[in-house]
């Protein structure tokens, strides 16, 4: 088994394209904030024009269609066709599993790289308490139908205080699902939903006791596992992805962020105006990225300081890594 920290790179671009904010669910930890991101559904012409902004570097760009629930968009299949013809390096669809508009019948497995399914509990009880009644069955059935049709599938599990206790049962759950990648995420304190325990991050000791071990057990089954590093020692190098990588989080109201933790604020670096990517005037998120603090990530300190801990001299015991810094395990 090979383990590596995925280095940030400007050579490869990641485009997280929210083509709508509408969703059939109301997950307790949903990161969508309609006050900030609007309620537009982008037309196919607009999707094409906005993809066109990045088409000159499409061959080095990973494109992720998300929402809301992207399969609620009636033209998702056509949008995928357009992205394919522009030559994007990879195309992923992040879905809650309901797979609307018969999307599995409208595209073929060679058009996309992954369907990525969100599941937040190993038991129906925990998953559905977070994501809503019927979601466990919907996601399991969605994975099974997609695998049967030959699509490559992955799973995303967002860890919080509410579901960490089920993490050790994940290797058993994923055993015969037919997925080839597994993503563990840490929940973020953002979005418009209420402050429930599904929004609370777990402590450093619980994270470190649980996550790397479970990730290894999943990888032993031949599945590539990616999980966020979250905590750094003072000896480890901290880097802010916004300074050293090339990520764009696009929302259907035209806002474009470089950092997902900034998404609850009108702090975006860019805005798409008349189908062009325009830099925004100061003050914006870029003004935060260069700040050096002993706690590591500046945005983490501002919006979720509860995951920091200080010694008697009020010095942080560890740094919080960029939320996009990942460990990857290859079977
Ligand atoms: S987290 Fe995703 S699936 Fe859940 S309500 Fe939000 S957009 Fe919908
Ligand atoms: S999460 Fe923190 S370190 Fe990462 S891009 Fe945002 S501000 Fe920078």
Automatic annotation (TrEMBL):
Cofactor: [4Fe-4S] cluster
Name of this chain's protein: Putative Fe-S oxidoreductase
SMART domains per record: Elp3
Alphabetized Pfam families for the sequence: Radical_SAM
The organism's place on the tree of life at top rank: Bacteria
GO molecular function list: catalytic activity; iron-sulfur cluster binding; metal ion binding
Assigned keywords, A-Z: Iron, Iron-sulfur, Metal-binding, S-adenosyl-L-methionine
PROSITE patterns cross-referenced by the UniProt entry: RADICAL_SAM (PS51918)
Record domain Radical SAM core: where: 7-228
